[in-house]
Amino acid sequence: MENLLSVAIGAGLGLIGAVFGSWFTARRQDRMWLREQKLKAGVGFNTAVSHLFDYLREARLGDDGAGANELVDRMQEARSALYLLCAGETVDLADALARRVWNTLPTDGRDDRKADHRETLELLRRFTQQLRREIVRS
C-alpha cells in the first residue's frame, strides 16, 4: 500500500510538471509569435512610410496614382496590423506619422517645407524607437 501511494504521488507530480512545462512552452511561443508579428508589421509600416514620404516630397499623389496608391495601401495594411498588435503609444505614433506623411508637400526648394520634412523624419525615428522598446518588452 505504501509503495502504491509513493507511485501515485510521483505520477501526480510528474503530471503537474508536464502540464506546467507545456503551459510555459506555449506561453513562450505565443510571446515569440507576437514579437515576430510586431516586427513584420513595423518593418512593413516603416518601409511604406519611408517610400511614400520620399515620393510625396518630390511629387503629389495625382502625378502617379498607381505607385502612390500601392504605397498608401501597404502603409494602411501595416498600420492595421499595428493597431491589432501594439500598445496605445505605438499606435498613436503610427497615426501621427501616417497623417504627417499624408500631408507632405514637395520641397520645391522652400526652407519651411524642409523643416517640416525634418520633423517628419524625427517622428519616424520616435516611432521606430517606441516600436523597438515594445518588441523588447513583449
Key attributes of the depicted protein:
138 residues; mainly alpha; 87% helix; rod-shaped
C-alpha Rg, in Å?
24 Å
Helical content class:
over 70%
Task: Label the structural class.
Answer: mainly alpha
> In whole angstroms, how far apart are the ends?
49 Å
Helix and strand run: HHHH
Query: In one word, what is the shape?
Result: rod-shaped
Percent strand equals under 5%
Count the helices. How many?
4
Mean pLDDT: 85
- Stretches where pLDDT is under 50 for at least 5 consecutive residues are none
Q: Major β-sheet, in short?
A: none
Please tally the β strands and state the result.
0
Oligomeric form:
single chain
Polypeptide structure, described:
The chain starts with a helix and ends with a helix. 87% of the residues lie in helices and 0% in strands. Helix 3 runs antiparallel to helix 4 (111-137). It is rod-shaped, with a radius of gyration of 24 Å. The relative contact order is 0.12. The protein is built from four helices and no strands. By secondary structure, the protein is mostly helical. The mean pLDDT is 85.
Short description:
This protein has 138 residues and is mostly helical. Helix content is 87%, strand content 0%.
Summarize the topology.
Blueprint: H1 2-58, H2 65-85, H3 88-102, H4 111-137
Helix pairs in contact: 1-2, 1-3, 1-4, 2-3, 3-4
